[in-house]
Amino acid sequence: MSPAPRRGRSALVMAVASAVTTLGALPPFLLGAQAVAIRDDLGFGLGAFGVAVSLFFATAAVATLSTSTLVDRMSRGLLLLLAGGVVTAGGLAMSLLVSGWWSLMAVMVVLGLGNAACQATANSLMARTLPPGRRGLGFGVKQSAVPLAIMLGGLAVPTTGALWGWRSTFVVTCCLGVVVMLGAVGLLLRGRRRGSRRAAASNADLLESPPTLPLVLAALAITLASAAANYVGAFAASWGFEVGLTPSQTGVLMAVGSGGSIAIRVFSGWRADHRHGANLPVVATQMWVGALGCLGLMIDAPWAVWVFGLLAFSIGWSWPGLLLYAVARLGRDNPAQASAAIQAGAFAGGALGPAVLGGLSGAAGFPVTWAVAAGCFALAGALILLSRRLFTADLLARPPREPFTYGRSKVTPPREP
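Request: output the structure for the sequence above.
Response:
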């Protein structure tokens, strides 16, 4: 295959993975952006609303961990069909059936399952379809879907939500899920025509698994960092308003922070493709920058919110794609199993961060909570470096059957992680 078609195919895979990830991650941000209208319509308070969002992430975490082995054995078409089907069902139920708190909880469970399926599908596409020299960029683009979902959730309020009500935004996600299902059917039909012998052989050959202890440490690290980062995303605007920013200024702050996070995630992935490993130290550094940003947010001044808020949001939350890329490479023949542990940690942090740290900010105030969030970031960076040492030791003890690929060369330098 010539370089131009190969680049075009890689770009298509990245676009599909990013779109599927955005679709799965969108529901809690749609809820958050339309919180006032939804709570008024369904008749419950802010605490119950927070439980609904946390339940979404908790369901995704449990589903990701419990199905990782199965994901490695499913075809791309079947994964896409499953992801699209669950998202479609959740969007349809949200737009037609939700009438109170309990029904909202049930639908958020379904949407959490859809998010887990979307993330697993996208991670599998990245790890098994992209050429090795483009996977870092691919994971960077794919993980840019979360800040993109935040932006889209905000845009839904003055557009679709204002014209037809909050339920109409979930009609849109339902329709997008149908599009994903149609694309999956096309993939399945094409795969059936070509036969699946090669895929079956590769599935039977899944022999090597990632080492457990460093994977657990990396998952714990992303749980802590994700809790802190999601707290920044959820409460930086509230803190800005408290210290003197206007609602419009806090909106600009979140939009610029989201844009910066997207840009740095993509750049970090691109750089990973041009580096011989050593990705996890970069992840740790980005987390420590997040700690610095949170410490700076303790300053009760508008300028500090601008400077340190953007620092924490754009650089301090730029590590998800790079971390997923690094761990998926070290997943040997089970990249979905390796990335599932990291993805589950991110979901757990998404469930715990706004709930636990949000409650702490209400009880002890924002400055104390910013200090705790900084501690979460700092500890997460230390755990990443510890997991790197253990990953490196495992590489030396169990050299991979196929050397890692960097661009056009195949080498396995001892500093790979």
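The domain at 1-206 is CATH 1.20.1250.20 (Growth Hormone; Chain: A;).
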